[in-house]
Amino acid sequence: MATDKFIPPLVFSVHGIRTKALWQKSLSETLKGFTIIHTPFSFGYYNVFRFLLKPSNEKMVDRFYEFYCKTISDPKYQIDTENYQKRPSIIVHSFGSYIVAYCMLKYQDVKFDKIILCGSILPRTFEWATLFLRDQVNHVQNEYGLKDIWTKLVGRFVKRTGDSGTFGFHVSSLYIKQTRFDYFTHSDYFNGQHVTKFWLPFLQKQPFNLGIKHGHDFEDVAEFSKVLDFTGTVIDKKCYGELPHYNEVEIPRGLSLKWIKINPDIYTFLFDQRTNEVKGYINAMPIEDNIFESIKEGKLPDDEITDEHIIPFLKNQKLKMYLMSIAIDPQARNVNEGLLNMAFERLMNGFINKLIYYYTNSNIKVSQFLAVGWTNEGRRLCKILGMTMIGNDEFGNPIYLLDLENEDLPKKEHLIESIKKLIEVYKQYPIFE
Predict the structure, then answer these.
(1) Residue 310 has what DSSP assignment?
(2) What are the pLDDT digits (tens) for 325-334?
(3) Could you read off the pLDDT of 152-200 as tens digits, one per residue?
């Protein structure tokens, strides 16, 4: 069944240097024809000399931030950046990609549903993972032209720039769509029917409406209990109910309530913002070393893990964590995405971002992950997470380990983006050296 086309509440645009950006005027007229409101960030003619000076560029980043905040606070646009249906989108060209991307890195409250980049001057290794982890953008479309000489040269002269407008980004994420134009130069994106053929369909896509909720976000124990009952009786049954031996280790009702009294943040949930229904979850427990070793040796089933085994998050800790379960309602996945789907990526991003928060704010570090692969999907996910099989449990299911302090980890490019970022943060801020 076809879905109604989405109408973004507002679309920003940001132009490049040495231009009056006449394309923004024609963009406004085109979008108006589809009842889409457009507001350009027009900063006037910006010469090369100013562009070569980092302080000038940083001032432009702050200037855009002020413009963004003022615009989204205007009640006529009805913007709500916590609601995916009410986030603005943005189209950026050339220097505009620098202004917006580094503004988002600097100011975490800058959020968009969709970002369209063309002639981007960001480096190929730009930190998209950081923005995805912080839930600052839903979808990115990067259009790059092989004949774009300008983006090939800019990285030699201006810091924090690069040639993603010629070669694309080196990133693996379902949130990013990259389109190559073999004969496009730096500003060919504004010609002909490009806006209606390539930009409009992207802007009109329905937002990805699955959001994250952590255990600490629940204010009502009754609500938390209701969600846990649903994950246990509905989602777990869908994902694991037909597996051999599932009934033997099924978590007894009420046990999870004891767990969360010690550490509610063992849970990371995936919620549909439209219906407020839970669509998936991760149960990741920081546990005592002796219990970790028992699970590692296949001697302790899940239903025998008690609240006494769980460690609360306190400051200045190095912990070992058991990934008890990752479960996503099959209906929350698109069949054409396969194992690495957007729901899984969103859930992992929320979980890893929480670990980064605890590390940078409370000096809490996870040194090892442990998991048991009950399903074929689960076993593949363990490998994708960079885990190594170390044995089997009592039912013959493989046990996997990821040692984040092991210098011989799988090559970084083979890991998913969120795990790469966690490792990077741990190395960048070596608290426990």
Answers:
(1) B
(2) 999 998 887 7
(3) 999 999 999 999 999 999 988 999 999 999 999 999 999 989 999 999 9
Domain map (residue ranges) of the chain: 11-203, 210-428
State in words which class domain 210-428 has: alpha beta
Q: How many angstroms separate the first and last alpha carbons of the chain?
A: 56
Place of tokens 């609360």: 312
How many CB atoms are located within 10 Å of the residue 309 CB? 20
Q: Please list the rounded mean pLDDT of every run of 10 residues in the chain (433 residues).
A: 79 95 95 97 94 96 98 97 97 98 98 98 96 96 97 95 97 94 97 95 96 95 95 91 83 91 97 94 97 96 94 95 94 74 94 96 96 92 91 94 83 76 88 63
Is 11-203 a domain of CATH 3.90.660.20?
no
Rounded to whole angstroms, the Cα distance separating 153 from 148 reads: 9
**CA nearest to 265, candidates 342, 351, 339:** 351
List % helix, strand, coil for the chain (3-state, nearest 5): 40, 20, 40
Amino acid in position 69? C
Residue 412, sorted as left (phi over 0), alpha (psi -120 to 50) or beta, turns out to be: alpha
Sheet with 38-41, edge to edge strand ranges? 38-41, 11-14, 89-93, 112-118, 137-145, 176-181
Residue keyed to tokens 């005592």? 288
Question: Would you say how long the chain is, in residues?
Answer: 433
The first and second tokens of residue 294, run together, are: 């028992």
Cα distances (angstroms) measured from residue 396 to each of 111, 301, 372: 45, 12, 10
CA 64 to CA 101: how far, in whole Å?
Answer: 11
Cα 323 to Cα 284: distance, rounded to the nearest angstrom:
4
Query: Which tokens hold the place of 318?
Result: 């190095």
| Stated pTM of the model | 0.92
**CA–CA separation, 333 vs 52, rounded Å?**
45
Rounded Cα gap, residues 12 and 224, in angstroms: 38
